[in-house]
Write a structure and sequence with these properties.
β42 and β43 form a beta hairpin. α6 runs antiparallel to α7 and α8 packs parallel to α10. The chain has a 23-stranded mixed beta sheet that branches. The protein is α/β, with parallel strands linked by helices and 615 residues long. Helix content is 23%, strand content 27%.
């Protein structure tokens, strides 16, 4: 009976070893659990905390939402993470008290490097049960740098809070409120549906596909987002990439391909744009959006534009919008829907163009951007719109109409650069580019394909150098970084060219030579074959020439095997003492022996006689 019980326990133990870990579902996706620690690291720049699965990411969220800020600490993803569409609570899940001057809020103040990996199936709230909060996104509020991170299939159904009569809801696919820089981050497959509680003024209701709001002096660089945003109350600032941009903050070389649909309500006053809702800073030359573009269609809102809803202190340079604009409740235009109402919030638009159409009913429509009177407001310089919108161009609009075909050639790129190539416009493969378009990684892919399939034949050092080159590839860069991307490919190609084969294995050769050296060549009739085989050994062969080296060893072994020993009668130092028949070569020796022998006989006879005589 005891043996049976023991066998059963052993079987159960084996079964348990086959079960998935607590952090993963059977397919490797997150199962909703929270780990007790990170995968490794100490949080320094040299040894960052490592996050390898959903449970460890949930541990970060749990720690931050319990009050830990991780100020100055560093994190890195070490694998793709599938959050499995399970309910996600933002990392730093409460922020409104910070906006109201309080201290009861959560913020992630560390630096998070996605290392090029992807977090997929992020789900916050649902259609039937929206997530009610003041921040929405993978991260709710950040203060450190977020970089090199991809999100795919992001679903947010949120309801902004009413705090002291103000609607507060900062929503982004990646971050709700960013007080740190965001670089080379990308959101794809976004579905965002936002509501606000009844009543209340839109105090901080800022919605963007990537980031809800970026704080002053911070930077978004080489980022992108694609998907859709729906806002159902007609309030706030809503943009394909970002809701609002703080004073002296910057966005460069970023793009948005987001369909934006907002309730058209003039009382709600929503500023809606294909790229940004509006600016949020007083006139400041450092508040800049440069070399960016938006391609999504924009519908509804109060003040709506293909690129921005309201200018409000923004300085937009070298940008374009191609989405169609329709059905705004108050004013709409192909590029910017409205200007600031206060001269202290004026901005500028320089070297930009829009190709989308402006259709549907709206009290005020503009071909490019609001310029409704002769009063000097935000300055618009060297800008263009599609001639299809010429019918709604107002008297004081300074932008110029152009046929679509004329906005697709090298001459137009030169016109936008206005004699200064540093503006970044170029004409490549039939397209006018501002620099935010995706870089071409075909050279990198070709270099990757050229990597030998079997690296075991190369030295560890040269393979390590190749791995470093491959690890140095940074995905997701914009066209402005094309030279750097090409350099990544070149580094891989150089590392491939520098691969060194391992040395061939001469163990068998050395053993064969040792075997030959142990032999006495004088014991064999002809030892020259062995000596020739040993002499034929060529050192310095590599592992691809191993068969040649093995043949050298075999040649020596074969030569040894072919040796014939001398017979016993012919071995040196072992000949007969007596002369052979007909051999006269030792006659002198024989005569000497006979003489000695005769003397011995005579001596013996004399002694014998003497003894007899003495008797």
């Amino acid at each position: 009976m005891k043996k049976r019980i023991g066998s059963l326990l052993l079987i159960l133990a084996l079964c348990f070893t086959l079960l998935p870990t607590a952090a993963l579902a059977s397919d490797g996706a997150w199962d909703g659990s929270t780990a007790a620690a990170f995968a490794g690291g100490t949080g320094t720049a040299e040894d960052p905390y490592q996050i390898a699965n959903g449970a460890q990411l949930a541990y970060l969220a749990s720690s931050v939402n319990s009050g830990e800020t991780y100020t100055g600490k560093n994190f890195v993803l070490t694998a793709n993470i599938d959050l499995n569409g399970l309910p996600w609570t933002p990392i730093a899940n409460s922020f409104s008290d910070a906006l109201l001057g309080g201290s009861n809020y959560r913020i992630f103040a560390g630096n998070f490097d996605g290392n090029g990996y992807t977090i997929s199936k992020v789900s916050i709230g649902s259609e039937t049960t929206p997530f009610e909060s003041d921040v929405f996104g993978l991260f709710g509020a950040t203060e450190g740098k977020i970089s090199n991170l991809n999100l795919d299939t992001v679903s947010i159904h949120g309801k902004a809070k009413n705090v002291s009569g103000y609607v507060i809801g900062l929503a982004g696919g990646l971050i709700g409120s960013a007080s740190g820089s965001v670089e080379n981050c990308h959101v794809t497959g976004l579905t965002m549906d936002m509501n606000a509680q009844d009543g209340g003024i839109a105090g901080a209701y800022w919605i963007g596909g990537l980031v809800g709001a970026l704080d002053g002096t911070q930077l978004i660089n080489e980022c992108s987002v694609s998907g859709s945003i729906t806002e159902n109350t007609g309030k706030g600032s809503i943009g394909g990439l970002i809701g609002e941009l703080g004073k002296a903050a910057k966005i460069t070389y970023s793009r948005s391909d987001v369909m934006v649909n907002v309730k058209a309500d003039p009382r709600g006053g929503a500023d809606v744009g294909g790229f940004i809702g509006k600016g949020n800073g007083k006139t400041d030359a450092e508040t800049v959006i440069r070399n960016c573009y938006a391609t999504g269609n924009v519908t509804g809102g109060a003040y709506t534009g293909g690129f921005a809803g309201g200018l409000w202190g923004l300085n937009i340079k070298n940008c374009y919008a191609s989405g169609n604009v329709s059905q705004a409740a108050a004013a709409m235009a192909s590029f910017v829907g409205t200007d600031a109402s206060d001269q202290d919030y004026y901005g500028s638009i320089t070297n930009c163009f829009a190709t989308g159409s402006v259709t549907g009913s709206s009290p005020f429509q503009y071909a490019f951007a609001e310029q409704s009177s002769a009063t000097k407001r935000s300055e618009i310089t060297n800008c263009y719109f599609a001639e299809e919108n010429s019918g709604i161009k107002k008297q004081y609009e300074s932008a110029t109409e152009k046929p679509q075909d004329e906005m697709k050639n090298e001459a137009f790129a030169a016109l936008l650069n206005k004699g200064d190539d540093s503006n970044g416009w170029s004409f490549v493969n039939g397209q006018v580019l501002c620099g935010a378009e995706p870089a071409d990684y075909s050279a990198v892919e070709a270099a990757m394909e050229a990597i030998p399939t079997d690296l075991t034949v190369y030295t560890d050092e040269s393979v390590a150098a190749l791995n470093t080159a491959v690890d140095g590839v940074v995905r997701g860069k914009a066209f402005v970084s094309q030279a750097n991307v090409n350099a990544m490919a070149q580094v891989i190609e150089d590392a491939i060219a520098a691969l060194q084969y391992k040395d061939a294995d001469y163990t068998k050769v050395d053993a064969a030579i040792a075997k030959a050296n142990a032999l006495n060549k004088n014991d064999y009739k002809d030892f020259s074959g062995v000596e020739a085989a040993v002499k034929a050994v060529v050192r310095g062969k590599n592992i691809t020439e191993q068969s040649e080296v093995d043949k050298m060893a075999k040649d020596i072994e074969d030569a040894i095997a072919a040796l014939e020993k001398k017979s016993a009668s012919t071995k040196a130092g072992a000949s007969d003492k007596g002369p052979r028949t007909g051999d006269t070569s030792n006659l002198a020796l024989w005569f000497a022996l006979l003489f000695v022998s005769g003397g011995a006989v005579i001596g013996t006879t004399a002694v014998s006689r003497k003894k007899k005589h003495n008797k």
